[in-house]
Amino acid sequence: MSSITLDLFADHEPEQQPKREQIAEQSWVLRGFVLPWLERLLPELDAVLAAAPFRQMVTPGGFTMSAALSSCGTWGWTTDRSGYHYSRQDPASGKPWPPMPEVFLHLAQAAALEAGFAGFVPDSCLINRYPPGAKMSLHQDKDETSMAAPIVSVSLGLPAVFLFGGFERGDKCQRVSLFHGDVVVWGGVDRLRYHGVLPIKDGQHPRLGEQRINFTFRAAR
Ligand code: MD6
Ligand code: FE
């Protein structure tokens, strides 16, 4: 094994990880899939966040989300007291969301294809920042107009335990550990499965510091 390969998998468990893990009929974890894209991805991420900084949002129920959010692409996802919305404008600036960088689009399409979803064209990339202690409660991604396209979810930085459930909130959940560079893709018959993230544990990631960053690519409209 070359030193480059070792470095690529430095965030993973020392034992061999299967490249592709099936977690439901049309749901896959692609281990380390992002790592070869990272040096092109991170500068574009910085540029997007300079134009549309992370902000904490309030749910319709009045709770402030512990993860901070931003978006890029034609549609950005927001929440406030009136509900969940896709909007063309960043409510913080009144300007359109930053365009989706080409490398984001290509990564999302490559991951979707690897999971069996050809022709994925995301028009929205929601970017979440989880400091230690932040979590995402169980939910379904159901604000998109069509359920035909998958969700492509990229994990960077601190590890997380991803909960992947069934079609009712109370269904039993799988716990899937996600590490820097992993991608989860779910769609088709699994598109409306409940999912969430347990509170992020304290830690320092060598590249991204004291945080987990998650991108979720969607076809919103
Ligand atoms: C994750 N995130 O962070 C999964 N969904 O691994 C989500 O499922 C998600 O972060 C809707 C809105 C924000 C999110
Ligand atoms: Fe979600």
UniProtKB/TrEMBL annotation:
UniProt-listed InterPro entries: Alkb, AlkB-like, AlkB-like_sf, Oxoglu/Fe-dep_dioxygenase_dom
Cofactor requirement: Fe(2+)
PROSITE patterns per the UniProt record, alphabetical: FE2OG_OXY
Segments of this protein annotated with the region Disordered: 1-20
Keywords: Dioxygenase, Iron, Membrane, Metal-binding, Oxidoreductase, Transmembrane, Transmembrane helix
Pfam families (alphabetical): 2OG-FeII_Oxy_2
Location of the Fe2OG dioxygenase domain: 121-221
Residues annotated as transmembrane: 147-167
Gene Ontology terms, MF aspect: broad specificity oxidative DNA demethylase activity
Protein name: DNA oxidative demethylase AlkB
